[in-house]
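User: I've been going back and forth on whether these two constructs are worth ordering. Before I decide, could you fold them both?

Assistant: Sure. I'll take them in the order you sent them. The first construct and its structure tokens:
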Amino acid sequence: MSGGLIVFLTLLGGAVFLLSQVLIVPAFGSDARTQKLLRRKIQQIAAVDTDQEVASLLREKYLRELSPLARRLEDSPHMEALGRVIEQAGVPCPVVTGAGTGTWQLERDSHVYTELQPGSYVFMDADYGRNALARDDHAFEHSLYVLATVMSTPAPERAIVDAGLKALAFDSGLPLVHAAHGLDYVKASDEHGVLAVDTARAAPAPGDRIWLIPGHCDPTVNLYDWIVGMRGERVECVWSVAARGAVG
């Protein structure tokens, strides 16, 4: 078994090296204009100061323009050629699988993949929500929330909720406050979170419920035993998180 694995990795590594030397460079070089435009957009994005509001809007504009250029290159036959090289080495390759929530349209349009593996689209999260979309990108809606309660308002511009590092995953950034204009989740400790309250609105009262959109949906789900499914204001189902606590 281990011998087969070693052979497979050796063949795959050789195939990737072969493609990088023979196919990838000419394929990218054959569309010099697209490459030039792509590099220019990347340079524009890198040069923008995102701390400034106007510059942030420009950055989003450049990202929207970048997506179709990257998609044009995604149609090149790299994956298809890699599959042929692997099969010629004696390893059957009936399924070409991959992609994710952020790239599934690119892989679908390549007509190379026989299976797509997006997963986060079911829930979405704050990290995906920050991505700029091209005009033809599909925008998935948020459906996963952590229900938090306001514990105190020690100052007019600050509120404390009972959801911190133990309630949400922070590896992809802070959560967003859903449907509550003027509230921003700005800091977390183990059991608590700090909300910044805009001066144009009143602070939430102790006991108020706040719906938080996790920064990263996958590891947030892993923190809970149950998912409560709601339709409107009615609880419709309760799902057990079957893999909760699993280590092997």
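The second construct, handled the same way:
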Amino acid sequence: MHKVAAALAALVTAVVAGLVAIPLVIGGDSPPTAAASVCATGDSDAILATIRDRESGGDYHEASHARAAGYPTGSGNPTGAYQFLYATWAGYGGYREAYLAPAAVQDARARHDVITILATFGTVDWVPIVWYIGAGGARDVRAGKIGLDDVPNPAYNTISIGGYQARWLDAYQRITSSGDPTTTTTADAANVTTLPTAPGVATTTTIDATSTCAAAAIVDGDALPLPRTILDANPERLAAPHHDYPAIDLPASVGTPVYAIHAGVVTHITSYHDNCYTDTATCGDLCGVGISITDPDGTTWIYCHASQLDLTVGAAITAGQQIMLSGNSGHSSGPHLHVGIRVGGVDHCPQPLLTALYKTGRAVPANELPASGCTYTAATSS
């Protein structure tokens, strides 16, 4: 191991000893696939508070590097409490740049990214590295291609990767040791904005402390298919029509954990990793990387377009179990999760089930779902 990396690994272990559930080792094992392991790697509220502290001092409206302000695009144009780069933010929640989004939307996006980082890298010490140089750069660090003493994009940065990580972990220790890691700074409190929501959805300015693991929360045998924080940013999407047959497409960045809505047994797996959106004729499988789970009543639950799936046919699945990571494989116009529900061999509309599950915690039984009325054709003609 690089001697700087070795020294920092020792620092990391000392700094966060007792704060996380597993040892912190730079260059660790393969990423965990179980949802429980993601939830056990750190306090998500403390992680978010640390990112805000280090990136902006908790200023959700920080816009000194905004494109709208004419700042050079070579900087990446970071804005908002978490200093999301323009390209990384990518219009999340319908807001052009992060600083334009309400606090709860920025929090939801940041929590989603933290979940993905922990699912991919396994331990909290990787969060500052990914936040500073991106997931691709972090993988290069893990592979030894980049040293922790390197300074990324030196035209705009002066601190090394390892230096940023050490300062971040020091702040994380301070916040977690305060006894109230969810407490906001003065800047946080001054800049919190209420998140507009769809009719019938409770308005909130905070994210539930348990929401990192919310998808694994089971009520009456069902669970949301994506982390609730993703759905919180645009709950109306749960009622959106599908293109030409009953199903639903839910936007989700590559690597987002996907959870089984309902328990059952894996009955079919597809493994086409390429994207064939522009070349359907040669498409190996429209679903891409996907899985079908059949429940005891014979209903089949279909999930498509994954980037990673490690299950096998015959595996028993529980509701809320992480089954794959979302992606852009198969016939997909962009990263998203496709969900289908097939009752008696007929496609039914998932929208009422997911909307009820999101709003009330209780899903509509699959056999009571409509088999029409949830496509663009139906929405246009009605």
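Notes on the second construct follow. The CA atoms of residues 100 and 269 lie 41 Å apart. Strands lie at 248-251, 257-259, 264-271, 289-294, 300-304, 306-308, 316-317, 322-326, 336-343, 346-348.
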